[in-house]
Amino acid sequence: MTESEQLDKYILKHIDPEGDYLYRLYRATNIHLLRGRMASGHLQGRLLKMLVEMIRPKNILEVGTFSGYSAICMAEGLEDEGKVYTFEINDEQEDFTRPWIEGSPVADKINFIIGDAITEAPKLGITFDMAFIDGDKRTYLATYEMALRIIRKGGFLLADNTLWDGHVLEVPKSSDGQTKGIEDFNDYVARDNRVERVILPLRDGLTLIRKK
Fold this sequence. Notes:
The chain has 212 residues and is an alpha/beta fold. It has helices at residues 3-13, 20-32, 41-55, 69-76, 94-102, 117-120, 140-150, 177-191; strands spanning 59-63, 83-88, 110-114, 128-133, 151-160, 195-200, 206-211. The protein is built from eight helices and seven strands; from the N terminus they run αααβαβαβαβαβαββ. Strands 3-2-1-4-5-7-6 form a seven-stranded mixed sheet, with helices on both faces. The N and C termini lie far apart (43 Å).
């Protein structure tokens, strides 16, 4: 076991447990879905819950539901009237994800929507307090601009996978659409004077953005 793996194991022993339901969901995700690693997992899930408890949003927008792990974690941190509106563009995902969301202890706080958040989220007519972007990396910029328009002043936007397994450092730059999408997003946000931002080197990179 490498030192990094040992530290990961140590961290998980010294933070809040993810709980039996989330443990079973993460296991099922990795057994039944391709790229199960895309699910947030124990550490990031506990961070998302705590950030929600700190920010105390009423409405959260999530772009990219996948198996529902992160939506459930964020919903756990919500106060009584809070709601997570989570969009998944891949309709083939619904048969796996919907039963897990609807069977969760926080099902009443999650609205799971199949569709393209870029076009559909603004139609909800909701001003959001927080957004979590974890969808198609090729459309991160368009998703960011959409989310920034419907998030309140002082609201927070979180973007996942922004270090992209270190591929952001590749020279020459990759022509892969996903990698290019992350690189373009990072460069754009770094220059955007409408926001404050910080990148956490957690798992695959998590960017925290605050709308001024």
